[in-house]
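Handout, page 2. Input:
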Amino acid sequence: MSDPIETARLQVLHSYGILDTPCEPGFDDIVTLATQICAVPVGLVSLVAADRQWFKARCGFPACETPLSQSVCVHALASEDGLMVIPDLSADSRTRDNALVTGAPFIRFYAGAVLRSEDGVPFGTLCVIDTEPRPDGLEADQAFALRALARQAMAQLELRRAVREREAALAAERQVRDALAVSEERYRLSSRATTDLIWDWNPQTGRIHWDEGLSALYGYRPVEIEPSNVWWYAHIHPEDRDRVRRSVQAALEGAPLRWSEEYRFRRADGTYATVLNRAIIVRTAEGTATRMTGVMLDATQQAEADAHREMLSQELSHRLKNTLAMVQAIASQTLRDAPDVTSARDALLQRLLALGKAHDILLAGNAERAGMEAVIRGALALHDNARAGRLRIEGPALDIGPKAALALALMIHELATNAAKFGALSVEAGHVGVTWQIEALAGAPQLRLSWIESDGPPVPPPSRKGFGTRLIERAFAGTVAGDVVLEYRETGLHCVLTAPLSGFQGKDGILN
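Output:
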């Protein structure tokens, strides 16, 4: 088991970081003064380590250290009054067998003032040595001076340690500062690399730090941005604001470490973006929320895609219902008009194939270009009983883009389905005319497309606008940037579409 006194001494020595360091004028001057005042040839600042005594400063002594077996200073550490004087080393039981006493340099006199740390741990001495005995020891003024110089040596050691600790603290501060600079640079680079908005909020003060994404993604100038949660809440859509505020408050008052909410956030131009806001919550050991750091993702495109997918789902459901009704109408009409079973079978097969082709146009829409007449005839093929004049399709040759072709097939299919159910195609005498022409207008040519039913039953206006009507107005008119007018007349339904020719011929459209 180690000696606690020795352990304390070695810890103190280590804290000064003094062992094996170069000579320093401050310590050398102290040793020189001590030898002059005490009129001796040798003076040392001796530090007692684990297995040696090492001299920080020496005068008149050639070696820089000696083993502990030759150390007189190790005995001085136990001095109660801080000063040990041995008039004749050869006559003292503690030192008479010391190799430095019995052999060269044959030292005889020793006086050492103990060096103690602030908490009273002795670890060395300021000592003076002579080769002649001194029966009277030190004079009073010499003893006083030796003690005073020992205190000066301690002051040098404390100052040296303070400087060393300050340099270490400054180095650590520089390291932290450099690490913080690197972290901030990484934050800036990651903020620029992402298309999301990063934010950091102190719930205690309400202060929010927004990164550059608030300007880049939502159009706000720095002078328009306030670093507060009040500003944040004020820019949430009024219909979502209370829900988001309650959600945040519940997260802060509860125990979760994560928070997430989807809502509408106002852009600088007044429009709203659908955003998904996610954050982690930093809490104290007691659970108090001290910080929320999060990422606000612009989910507008995803929300629009979800809405579009929902519309397509409704459309598919609508199409399937209409398909079943159409199959029933085709079968009934075919069986009624066919002269024999074989003819009925062949006609029914051809009409079902035409129905499949129409749905290929509706659901694929991937051709580079399509002829307008081919699109219209393909959509009306299953309603053609080969009766002269039942379907009249007229217009100039015109190629249209894939999105417009899909929308046109969708519109004609919807109009034909309604006509087969309720309009001109529901009776034998009914007729439908589909015509189009290009009109020269100032600025850009315009296409006018008409669907006109005749000789059918009167078509009263519907009591409410159904999904089919909305689909016609939204899908076709929206795709070609035009207008649709529906008129419910006694003679049958009239539908007129007007749109820029460029809307029909473009490769892209609103309907995706």
